[in-house]
Amino acid sequence: MIRRAMTDIVLVGPAALAVVLFIFLPVAVVFILAFTDYQVGASRADWIGFENFAALFGSRLGRNALINTLVYAAIVIPASVGFGLLVALGLHGLTPRMPRLSAVLRTIYFLPVAATLVAMAVSWQMLLHPSLGLMNSWISALGLSPQQWLSDRGLVLYTLAAIGVWQSIGYNMVLFLAGLAAIPATLYDAAAVDGAENGWTRFWTVTWPMLGPTTLFVLIVTAANAFRVFETVATMTQGGPAFASDTIVYSLYREGFVYFKAGYASAITVVFFLALLLLTALQVALIERRVHYR
Amino acid sequence: MTLELALDSVSKRFGDTLAVDAVSLALRAGEFVALLGASGCGKSTTLRLMAGLEAPSTGRVLLNGRDVTGDSAAARNIALMFQSYALYPHLSVYQNIAVPLRLRRLSAVGRLPGAGLVNSGVRLKLAEIDTQVRRVADILRLGLFLSRKPGQLSGGQQQRVALARALVREPSAFLLDEPLSNLDTQLRADTRDEIKALHRRTGYPFLLVTHDQSDALSMADRVAVMIDGRIVQQDTPEAIFRAPETREVAEFIGHHRMNVLPRGPAEVLHPAGSLLDLGVRPEDLCLAPDGPLEAIVVSRSFQGEETILRLRDRVGNDLRAVLRGAAPLPADGETVRLAATPGALHGFDAAGRRQEVGS
Predict the structure, then answer these.
(1) Are B103 and A206 an interchain contact pair (Cβ–Cβ within 8 Å)?
(2) Has the ipTM of the complex gone over 0.90?
(3) Which residue of chain B has the CA closest to A206?
(4) A85-110 pLDDT per residue, tens
(5) pTM above 0.80, yes or no
(6) I want to staple A233 with a disulfide (CB 3.0 to 4.6 A). Which of A153, A250, B244, B253 is the partner?
(7) Residues of chain A contacting B91 with CB distance shorter than 8 Å
(8) How far apart are CA A155 and CA A240, in angstroms?
(9) How big is chain A by its Cα radius of gyration, in Å?
(10) Residue B112 backbone dihedrals phi, psi, to 5 degrees
């Protein structure tokens, strides 16, 4: 009995210790720091209550980062889930007829997921260059006026959102493809016999409900990634021009690691963490009831 | 007699394999037909061709004399019960049963949730659907489970839901794909009775696809035996068992595989054995002190009400005999003599066709 218990502790212990040491403890420290005015390197910190939070929600800059992130997520989540599903449906239908082409397209769509984002960001920067970039030469060829993709204050956030969509379609596509492959073919036969005459009706009778669990997972993952947007901002715009592409995680990086305001950065982290937690819990509670069938 | 649903020399080819080979099979009003064959013989494909889930490579499908070869499964209005039941896991039992009616009677807009609250036409149709769903649910004793999901039901209950979903819309024919193969022995017997009762009650033409000959023989008015994509014999269960048309059918039908003695050595049983292979069912072979056939007992298998003897005759043919009753059993290695009445002999010519054996 005691031997069993000891074995269990020995097996679980190291991993549990690491989790406590490297995850729970830092999180706790961040929660405490959020209520102080601690700066990196300072010898002391004062308890200032909710002042950091007031600064985040009260300042123009803090609200700007929050709103930018929400706008970015509001574009990226539906677009990358929707296009991911469309691409998956197309490739799933293509596979029996043209397996080679389907496999090639799959790889192409998945490349952005596999590639290093920072390297990709550099290529995007070249593509989007105002005078030398391919994007503007194509646009001019179509007779439209060239755009300052990354330095126009009204445009930069949408450019980043488009890149965010491009980057996550492949991942969502793979998840949806797996979900589609798991749908039993007899359900489509049953729907055909039951009177689902066209693909549209079959989609709503079988495909969409059977993809429920996959869609829930894809939504949660995509949402978490969209709210966490950082690399593209850091490498391509540094939040500019004039904070037009400043997002929560980028501002947290700037406050914490450029201005060394650890207390304020911790407050941002806490808000971000709680928001994500709430969002995920909400999604799970809302959708789980409707997608788990057993 | 009105023809209901018929395949007219239909073939189906998948790549290089001919899955269904010029099959003609008619399903008439009020009839219960069983399509019997070993797994992989093409019987499920035949059923899918009838239902409209596969398009024939050649041949026609006729519904009440009309050519429906090009029609979709939905347009043919044929009900199909799947071996896996194929219930929609996200819908309740009630919703599962209602699906065929909702898809047929309501437009895509009418199927939206809440459409019944807005549109009185939709409300009226929903009320009709409700009546029909509850009626068929009552027939199949599903009243208590209407709000459950299929995942919360036992196999037998799921099967009744599948039956209800197939029957709710008054189909032109009812096809059942291996309906009993997922059930345990007791439930099988009950479900057999239930399906037969449903057939009597509804009067729809039923087609049962099965690999189990006792299901086919006990339930159907007519059995079609399928071997390698061809229907080799169609007849009443009695005729299939008593007078198999070919050697293949003879060896396929029957709990114990028929003994077939090759022509020549078969002569000891009957003079016709000089020209014909002679088949005799193990049940028809009995121990007789002055029997014409001499054989050595190789092994015995006691199975309760019967004992199966494996024997070898003098020229090396393997034989089986089924002994019933309390007669003393011969020991292994003992030489016994066997006899069969001329009426129990089935003669087959070199092509495997049945030839009558005179008495």
Answers:
(1) no
(2) no
(3) B88
(4) 999 999 998 888 888 998 899 888 88
(5) no
(6) A250
(7) 209
(8) 11
(9) 24
(10) -65, 145
CB contacts, 8 Å: B161 with chain A: none
Our count of domains for chain A comes to 1
**Residue A286 in domain:** yes
Under 8 Å between Cβ of B150 and B86: no
Does A190 sit within 8 Å of B88, measured CB to CB? yes
Among A187, A193, A200, whose Cβ lies nearest the Cβ of B73?
A193
Which chain A residue has its CA at the smallest distance from B168's CA? Answer: A194
- Interface residue B70 vs chain A (CB under 8 A): no
Interatomic CA distance for residues A202 and A196, integer angstroms: 6
Indicate which CATH number applies to the domain containing B274: 2.40.50.140
* Nearest alpha carbon to residue B202 among B248, B234, B171: B171
Task: Based on the fold, state whether residues B128 and B275 are members of the same structural domain.
Answer: no
- B78 neighbourhood in chain A, CB within 8 Å: 193
Q: Measured between beta carbons, which residues in chain B are less than 8 angstroms from residue A294? A: 89, 149, 151-152
Q: Identify the closest residue of chain B to A184 by CA–CA distance.
A: B86
CA angle B118, B122, B123 (to 5 degrees): 75
How many helices (H) and strands (E) would you count in chain A?
A: 15, 0
d(CA A163, CA B30): 64
- Interface contact flag, B53 A186, Cβ < 8 Å: no
B356's tokens:
């009558």
Q: Is A197 close to B74, i.e. CB distance below 8 A?
A: yes
B286 close contact with A: CB closer than 8 A? no
Element (H, E) at B249: helix B247-252
Report yes or no: B23 and B225 within 8 Å, Cβ to Cβ.
Answer: no
Residues B131 and B41 occupy one common structural domain? yes
Structure tokens at A120: 């990709």
- Residue A94 sits in which domain range? 58-291
pLDDT tier, B272 (very low <50, low <70, confident <90, very high otherwise): confident
Q: Are residues B282 and B235 in the same domain?
A: no
- Tell me which of B26-40, B56-70, B98-112, B146-160 is least confident: B98-112
Same domain, residue pair B335 and B301? yes
Residue B95 lies in a domain: yes
Distance from CA of A182 to the nearest CA of B (A): 13
Query: Mean of the pLDDT values across residues A35-56?
Result: 80
A23 lies in a domain?
no
